[in-house]
Amino acid sequence: MSSRIDGDKSGQVPSGVRRILRGPRPESVPGLVGTAVMIVGLLDVAAGVFPRFRHSRIHAVAEVLPVFGPFAAALAISAGVLLLLLAHGLKRRKRRAWRAAVVLLPAGAAAQFAYRHSIIGVVIAALLFALLLRHQSEFKALPDPRSRWKALANFVLMSAGSIGLGLVIVNVHPGRVVGNPGLYEQITHVVYGLFGFEGPVDYAGQVSWTVGYSLGALGMLTALTTMYLAFRPEHPAARLTADDEGKLRELLAKHGGRDSLGHFALRRDKAVVFSPSGKAAVTYRVVSGVMLASGDPIGDVEAWPGAIERFMEEAKAHSWTPAVMGCSETGGEVWTRETGLDALELGDEAIVDVKDFSLSGRAMRNVRQMVKRIERNGYTTKVRRVSELTEAELEQVRGAAEAWRGTDTERGFSMALGRVGDPGDGDCFIATAHRVEEGDTSPFGDLKAVLHFVPWGADGMSLELMRRDRAADPGMNELLIVASLEAAPSLKIEKVSLNFAMFRSALARGEKIGAGPVLRMWRNLLVFLSRWFQIESLYKFNAKFRPRWEPRFVVFRTTRDLPRIGFAAMQAEGFVTLALPRLFASRRRPKPVRTCAHNHTPAKVPAQAEREVQAA
Predict the structure, then answer these.
(1) Kindly report the CA angle at 313 between 310 and 318, in degrees rounded to 5?
(2) 3-state secondary structure 566-590
(3) In 3D, which of 250, 254, 463 has the Cα closest to residue 352?
């Protein structure tokens, strides 16, 4: 038996050449084509805006659509903007983007050859077209859920972009401008041009036609894309159907004690996927292309892999970025094992064991003194199940919670239920603070503060909402938390989940003796950010009640997805909203205190609690 060490390789093709002949890997084609189309679009926009660029050699490489006659700049800009809009969809493997590209590229190549006889432009279009046809199986992503709000967002963004680009177009011909128009005249000329009218700025020669056609093309694109988004068939946003909610309640009745966030799966603005056996489920919402799951899967742990697989299949089908917010350590282990995703500790959940809670001792002195002082001021408390409240009391609680909210939009997603007193939520708990005052004109009577808890299995509850009247004495939060913990044994509650403290472990370790310079620098940064997000204050507020800390994690695919996931999470939680501002809010609404719409929000703490922490 012999082996050949160094034979004649003259008949073999070098590996580098073989890779070129084989072409790119199928999974990399969407990103490659999307990037190429984006570059072509940018160059076409540059060709339409800057006159010198239209005659450069690089523009001959970039041309895909025909540019000819007096319409050259307008067509180049239109083609560039359309290609830029198309590039994002191609990168996300969208089927509709693939269909549009398959039609656009051959048409552009044919027109390019007919009007400019540019072989290079035809070759580029043909290469991209061949890649799209050969790897069409990579472009199977279904459309995203959509609503009419996207038409409004498109109109605002396209209008702003068109005005900015229009100002550039108006000013790239300084030698042809008649007179010396100011900024106001330039903006007026752009706005008029977007609507197809002649503005106050005048040019010498045919430049006036070029600018006019270019501005008109931008206005037409804005109008057409907005009309398309407004009148296309609407896909409703995620909604939990009655049947899905019933199945989830059955799973929670059997397995709800495992996760303190399980009951928040019943938010009705979430969608759900079930395992093949129906014994487990994952609830989620799609925000900005991110498929955002919340907490651990619901149901039997043995059936979690089936639900997770369905979740990942749904994400792949729509080319969504999968992510999980606030899962437990067990949930993070299952997610990473079954999907190959990565996990990062996000913070800690404060959990108080009722049997270990007591107001006695030096550690609880501040809380004890505050509660006693408030009780001496005439405040009383009630802790009851929602089913024990009358309809009039529920209406009063709902109205107070709405009026005392500190923001125009309701906040919460992963750790909030988003409703109070629903007929199906009779097993939730409500703690209220009351004080009768002479001459009190509050529309909510003697009600001064509200805490809302959701069930955590049969023997636990999880804090979901804190609201208080801004005229009430400081310490309402402490008063009601202590009252809830003291009433817990009579309600057969053994454990209570309080707030979620973001980056708690870093804050706790960074303030200890012997902490390293990196940890101290990280803690100082968190303390600095607490000026806006109250990260440190929330940790200290939770620590008042001597809880045990349970870590929570964010699960993600790659590190580069984290900024996108973070922005989507902020949108879902209500810290970033694209809704129209409430310009005509009722002036009779009481000025609200800045409170937390849902106590598990990672980045916020009630302003009153913030002041109480500082005072303590």
Answers:
(1) 130
(2) HHHHHHHHCCCCCCCCCCCCCCCCC
(3) 463
What are the tens digits of pLDDT across the range 386-398? 999 988 889 989 8
The string of pLDDT tens digits covering residues 79-93 is 667 777 778 778 877
As a whole number of angstroms, the distance between CA 289 and CA 208 comes to 41
Can you name the residues that pair with 429 across neighbouring β-strands? 385, 453
- Specify whether the CB–CB gap between 132 and 102 falls below 8 A: yes
Token pair in block for residue 437: 């005052």
User: Which residue spans within 394-446 are E strands per DSSP?
Assistant: 429-434
* Residue 141 to residue 119: CA distance in whole angstroms: 33
Residue 79 phi, psi dihedral angles, 5° rounding: -65, -40
Please state, in angstroms and rounded to a whole number, the distance separating the CA atoms of residues 420 and 417.
Answer: 8
Residue showing tokens 């805490």: 451
Phi, psi of 547 (to 5 degrees): -85, 170
Tell me the H-state helices in 461-534: 476-487, 504-510, 517-533
The pLDDT tens digits for 113-152 are 554 555 676 777 778 888 888 877 777 776 666 655 677 7
Q: What crossing angle do the helices spanning 183-194 and 149-171 adopt, rounded to 10°?
A: 130
Residue (of 245, 291, 295) closest to 266 by Cα position: 245
Tokens of 6: 């160094």
Q: Are 524 and 592 in contact (CB under 8 A)?
A: no
Kindly state the average pLDDT of the residues 602-610. Answer: 37
Phi/psi for 124 (5° steps) reads: -60, -50
State how far the Cα of 73 lies from the Cα of 54, in Å rounded to an integer. Answer: 9
- For residue 49, give the H/E element and its range: helix 29-49
**Residue at token pair 């005509």:** 584
Cα four-point dihedral sign 425, 426, 428, 432: positive
Task: Render pLDDT for 523-540 as a digit per residue (tens, 0 to 9).
Answer: 777 777 666 666 777 778
Alpha-carbon distance of 56 to 256, in angstroms, equals: 67
Helix axes 207-231, 72-91, angle to 10 degrees: 30
Beta carbons within 10 angstroms of residue 42's beta carbon: 15
Q: With beta carbons less than 8 A apart as the criterion, state whether 371 and 482 touch.
A: yes
Could you tell me which residues come within 8 angstroms of residue 278 by beta carbon, excluding any fewer than 6 positions away? 247
| Token pair in block for residue 523 | 């803690």
Give the Cα separation of 431 and 427 in Å (integer).
13
- Threshold 0.70, pTM exceeds: no
Q: Distance of CA 109 to CAs 75, 105, 395, Å?
A: 14, 6, 66
SS3 assignment, position 63: coil
Which residue is it, tokens 């804005």? Answer: 222
Is a pLDDT exceeding 50 seen at residue 482?
yes
| Dihedral (Cα; 484, 486, 492, 495), 10-degree rounding | 70
Rounded Cα distance between 355 and 375, Å, is: 23
Is the backbone of residue 466 left (phi > 0), alpha (psi -120 to 50) or beta?
A: beta
* Closest to 432 (Cα-Cα) out of 416, 418, 444, 443: 444
